[in-house]
Amino acid sequence: MRPTDITIKNVSFSTEDFLYRTPIKFGGIALDRVTMLNAEIEVETSRGKRSVGKGSMPLGNVWAFPSKTMAYDKTLGAMKAIAASCASVYAKTKTSGHPIEITWELEKELLSNAEAEGRKLNLDDPIPPLATLVCASPFDAAMHDAYGKAHQLSCYHTYGGEFLDNDLGRFLGTDFKGVKIEDHVMKEPVASLPLYHLVGALDPLVSQDVVKPVGDGLPETLGEWVLFNGLTHLKIKLNGDDLSWDVGRVIGVEKAAEVAQKQRGQSTWHYSLDFNEKCKNVEYLLDFLEQVKEKSPAAFSRIAYIEQPTGRDLKASRANVMHAASKQIPVVIDESLLDLESLLMAREMGYTGAALKACKGQSQSVVLASAARHMKMFLCVQDLTCPGASLIQSASLAAHVKGVSAIEANSRQYCPAANTPWEKSFPGIFKITNGSMQTSCLNGLGLGADPK
Q: CA–CA distance from 206 to each of 252, 289, 415 (Å)?
């Protein structure tokens, strides 16, 4: 054992519910609430020092466990059961080491136990691996948090060779031998990152679109948000099954944004597009791009990247290759990104980038980010409407992984009440000015998410 190694001593968790101030529509579903999974882990170093870490993440069952037959409460209940299963795996393990090493060793057990839990619940659909990753992520995060605190360091200072064998060959095989995590993940955060503001399918673009005002003092329309936060990056949610609506939505966003940006004297801004894997095939995407380019060359020129447009089961969608689309604009794998196999398959199918998400685990994100950068892939960090501590973790991931140029964070739009305990301690994270999140503060002990 290294003197820095830890073992897990105690594990606990709880859930917390919040209502959204306004619904988000994605994947054909309007969502108006969130359940947070909060985990706490106590660890002990090989020298007997103990520390406690915390992790938090939205369960995000509509995204992580989509089902055509099971209701929201059914899939949410299943994910709560998976969370209990994950807690048990972490609590029982006798494995010692660095958090990345411990989680990497436990991943197969986490997945197999979740599958068994699904069979026990007699669910209509098997437990998706993505749902298990989401449920395990707060426990993994809590372990990184505790590890950093035990050594009085930010966890991003513990990914070098003095704390673990950080050669990716150990985790991902001989093709990655010699690739070091510390060459792709920085010890210190960048000072700031532009923020991608979400334009949901139900969100009003102009005042005429406001049917029932929220009336809480926050902006109601896209134009108001642009002026309120000085936005320069917009993420547009699209349906993927209505070409006319999708093209019209992008053009509508362009028109609304243009008016607001003109007021600001801003001539440059950017879009990302998210179809939430609803495009039937790649031809839909290509037709969409052609029509946007024809009808609004300006809007087309602002598209920075496209999130996974077609189904998450890559093996079942091998015909949906993205080479033609990605020659025009980077296309990133999102829902499909579960492991190295899926990353390599996506790359073979023409995806040129990868969307990192804290909800898939700190350990996995750090390892796969390093692998993707080694393969010279485009990287972005995406949100799961993460509030509070989970947003701090997500923002910190974006601020420490080399090559990430912007951060998505939309809890301030949909769930600001959950951010309240952290706002005074992290004003630069929760109060957006000039379109950017101020990330230089993300250098505290562990994950650095404790209110000061």
A: 9, 24, 21
pLDDT digits (tens, 9 = 90+) for 384-418: 999 999 999 999 999 999 999 999 999 999 999 99
DSSP one-letter code for 403: T
Closest CA to 329 of 374, 294, 286, 296: 286
Residue type, 414: Y
- Joined tokens for residue 396: 């910190």
Strands 378-381 and 353-356, by their bridges, are parallel
pLDDT digit string, tens, across residues 287-304 = 999 999 999 999 999 999
What domains does the chain contain, in order, with CATH numbers?
6-166 (3.30.390.10), 192-438 (3.20.20.120)
Cα separation, 5 vs 102, whole angstroms: 10
Alpha helices, H only, 44-98? 61-64, 72-92
In the predicted structure, residue 311 carries a pLDDT above the cut 90: yes
Write down the pLDDT at residue 452: 78
| CA 386 to chain CA centroid, nearest Å | 8
Rounded CA separation 182/445 (Å)? 18
Cβ distance 39 to 15 under 8 Å?
no
pTM: 0.96
* Residue 367 token pair: 């390892």
